[in-house]
Amino acid sequence: MRLDFELRKIPGKGLGLFATKDFKIGEIVESCPIILLNSEERKYAEKTILDFYMYPWRSTRTGSIVLGYGSIINHSFTPNCDWKQNFRAMRMNYKVIQPIKIGEEITVNYNGEPDDKTPIPEEWFNVV
Length: 128
Hints:
Largest sheet: 5 strands, antiparallel
Radius of gyration: 14 Å
Strand content: 35-45%
Structural class: mainly beta
């Protein structure tokens, strides 16, 4: 299977996902299966390194651990992708919202909405 992205190490950031082809607005970069966590399991996961990789699922009381390459996508307040839950398929989809050129890093806004400028906790960026 050919991937349209590659992993690269970024000094001070850890790993990042970089395009190996040009992406157009609306394309799906990655569609990842998830592991669903109920509210009790989420409480336990929040006490581990998984807290930095967890996404909300149907609410912020439950969570999901994204498999595949989705959990490696780094944050930006000017992202080129957006993430959305596909509840029926139990997948997290990463869709292009700004054109991405070969060699560019693929990014999402960790706040959930691409234009949300709410500050992100500094400790989220020290996980390498």
